[in-house]
Please model this.
Amino acid sequence: MSEKSLSTEKIFVTGHRNPDTDSICSAICYARLKQLQGFDGYVPCHPDTLNPESQFVLNFFGVDEPQQLDDVRTQIKDIAFRRTPGVNKGISLKQAWSLMQTTNAVTLACVNNEGLLEGIITIGDITQSYMNLYDSSIISKARTKYANILDTLEASMVIGDPEAYFESGKVLIAAANPDMMENYIEKNDLVILGNRYESQLCAIEMEAGCLIVCDGASVSLTIRKLAEERGCAVITTPYDTYTTARLINQSMPIRHFMTTDDIISFSEEDFLEDIHDIMASKRHRDFPVLDAEGRFLGMISRRNLLGARGKPVVLVDHNERSQAVNGIENADIRAIIDHHRLGTIETLSPVFFRNQPVGCTSTIITQMYREAGIEIDRQTAGLLCSAIISDTLLFRSPTCTEIDRSTAIELSKIAEINLDEYARKMFAAASNLKGKTDQEIFYQDFKRFSVGKSLFCIGQITSLDADELDSLKPRIRSYAETAMDYHKVDMMFFMLTDILTESTQLICVGPGAEQLVLNAFHINESSRDIRDGIVDLPGVVSRKKQLVPVLMMALQM
Model:
């Protein structure tokens, strides 16, 4: 199947958890690129809350925040379940049966005028009702509308209101002579009979509530007039007496037989893995699916779960499972655009993969615009340029390449911004940490890594204010200990990076974490100021290029 043929489905373009500016801007700009190429289904999104820097960038260029999507596990709304309309609980058993045969369904949902679920009726309920009915008053107890009787018997209303209800009396067949009929016809009964005038007259005089005249026989004017005077409905049907008696129970409304209590239903937002065991433990074949407001959408069965595919996803600015949105292992990954080392993402089938040794994913996406011959507008240029400024710390980071620099300069002209002035505003927004909780600061830019059996996380904040960074150290160190227990990792690191001095104070938490850093950077403990769990790293500003590779190499030694 070609990419073009899939252009109408939603494909989610997402960066990593705790997204930075490159992650956000790359997702937006790649989705725009695909849309400009004619693929409307690409939707930018992000797993977690935006950091202040990213929010500043979006606000500056007037861009709406992308959709937040923190889980890409397959949901009911992602698969093809039976989308059928609900039915009114007043329809007859016959109508329900016919609808089931027409739609090849075994379960119908009964809904009100607002589409809210009121009950369900199965094909088993209908057959059981037909086989187990011995109560001759069941039709009145079910408050059967005359309109249902007319439809079931293909009948005509001679006297009476089709919208009225038969709600009192029993059903009987007048097969005897009038003398015997007087002994068993009671007030309000529904009497099935033939064209004999005497029997019809007797039933009316015994205050029957309704006469059903069979075999298409005509009803005399005298009987009509008398019935109208006595308030007795009169119906004629082309069926014979036997067939009429056999069919009439099918006129009862399904509300009398539907299940209303303990109905197992699912929301379209439910994840398949959460409903699988529930469905497997029940004998029901179909389960109602509701929207967020409780309106009925359709029915899902275990068969619908077979072969269900994951959400279509494009990954930008990462390719490691530990950094990806929840549920990525079951997602249908369509493409990966990244500038980091190769990680642990596995795909179900071959995908478009682009990885280049540059300082920013947005640099790669800018190249893709050029290669596609698509002009970059001011807003898009602003986003791409902001991402490069952020990831390269305005070309200070050792990850920055000449391609990043020249690309950012070109984009700044399209975006009509002064690089230095704009960068100062952007970094100031990122370093404005006043009023933020420890948690908000800690997860502004946070990633998880694995080397062999070792698991560790690294967070980072950058600031233009050295005093502000110093004041944060005790707070962040304390929170890092809590975070390490929560994430169940071996070590936790946090980079307090000063943009102006191009240096980092690294908080180290966990058994052997500080010693690992000292060994990795060949720092003699006796030659430095001893500050519990904090190591000065002059010239280190990049997590990706200057910290992670060094720690990984040390762990492998």
Q: What stands out?
A: The CA atoms of residues 341 and 471 lie 33 Å apart. The domain at 77-129+256-305 is CATH 3.10.580.10 (CBS-domain). The longest helix spans residues 466-487.
